[in-house]
Amino acid sequence: MNAIPDPNPLNGIMGLLREIRQCQDAGAVTATAVMVYIGIDLMAFLSMPIGQDKQTRQDFIEWVNQYLQAEPESAYNYDGRDVYGARCALLHTYGVEAGYHEQNPDVKKFGYHDGGPHIYDPAINDRLVIIGINTLVHDFVRAVQAFVQCMGTDTDLRLRVAGRIPRVIDVFPFIAD
């Protein structure tokens, strides 16, 4: 039995994006959001400073603030602290609120819908954002593209990613002898 590895070092990231799209195409709204949060965790891991072995809350927040941008017409633009709180709530309690929200009362809570644009009206509720899953996926894909483009010009980032990318899960085609 032989596994044939893909020569593209970014194949693991591309596989994650495919998994996100599969969840999205299946209509699995919360699974799609979970996969996006896993993707942000991955990107924070890849971009963390040299000499650091584990990504932190701050790495996650900084990656979001640097790369994850909503379209200009969006009712809500991402804040790393809000996205981190939403990640904690969904991954740890399958809910909209986590201990992070209790510790940081200014952090917004996320609900989710299967449509397009985010819904946010601070006049109605300044702590609740309804995230459009299709918009979240679109914006995350753009953020990953911006990150990869940044790797093209930032030698330090490229070296950090190169040293960590072998640890990213990858699925290889399997050929039975």
Short account of what is shown:
By secondary structure, the protein is mainly alpha-helical.
For this entry, give a set of tags:
54% helix; two-stranded antiparallel sheet; two-stranded parallel sheet; 177 residues; mainly alpha
What's the rounded overall pLDDT mean? 92
Physical arrangement of strands within the biggest beta sheet? 1-4
Number of E-state strands: 4
Distance linking N and C termini? 5 Å
In this structure, how is the largest beta sheet organized?
2 strands, antiparallel
Helix fraction?
Answer: 40-55%
> What's the tally of helices?
7
The secondary-structure element order is EHHHHHEEHHE
Low-confidence residue ranges: none
Structural class: mainly alpha
Overall body shape? globular
Question: Over the alpha carbons, how many angstroms does the gyration radius reach?
Answer: 17 Å
Beta fraction: 5-15%
List the helices and strands and how they pair.
Layout: E1 2-3, H1 11-25, H2 29-47, H3 57-67, H4 80-93, H5 99-103, E2 109-113, E3 128-132, H6 133-153, H7 155-164, E4 174-175
Parallel strand pairs: 2-3
Antiparallel strand pairs: 1-4
Helix pairs in contact: 1-2, 1-6, 2-3, 2-4, 2-6, 3-4, 6-7
